[in-house]
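Entry type: protein chain
Record version: 2
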Amino acid sequence: MNEHILQLLNRGNKMRLGPLMHEKGIPVPCYPDIRSLYSRPHYLRVLATEMALRIEHERIDLFAAIPFGGFPLAIALSMTMNRPFICVRPFEKHSLRPNIEGVWRKGQRVALVDDSLTTGKAKQRAYELLVEAGMHPTHILVIMEMSGFLAESKHRGWLKEKGVKVISLVTWHEWVHFMEREGQFSKETTEALLRLLDNPPAWVKD
């Protein structure tokens, strides 16, 4: 567990009150507004440094940012590790704009960068686009990763079968437990959120 990043999330972000409708049709009552951390240069620098430590021994040639959530972190990582970055738009609808922008070479090993990972739908599409361009997506780098039942999806299963390695700084389970320890969540709220993460159908019935 990355206690330092959890403290950062607690100090620096806003908590959004739901319901946020998950792709599985499950209403999530609250969630951390991770992107608010990007407004503070010091926090962004800490996030990039922590991620750089996690991947310093990984073979990664460049970072591919998924707009908007991945942009600030990918740029910060690029500057921290002196490696290039590109932009990949998984669902670009404007025909005059390419899905991938930047400079790359075929055969390069790429890490997809975003603020969070839930079902993995956008990550799968980004993976497919990078492969079509001749690159090898090998990693997914995120600040927070959805965990439990809500993390199970055909897209994440597909990415796992492709051998993509997910590296996250914190998980939803870690965040919920941390918020309880810090007195931000009551025991009842914590138990309810854990039920949501582990057994959403039963949680909805409750």
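Comment: The chain has one domain: 3-205.
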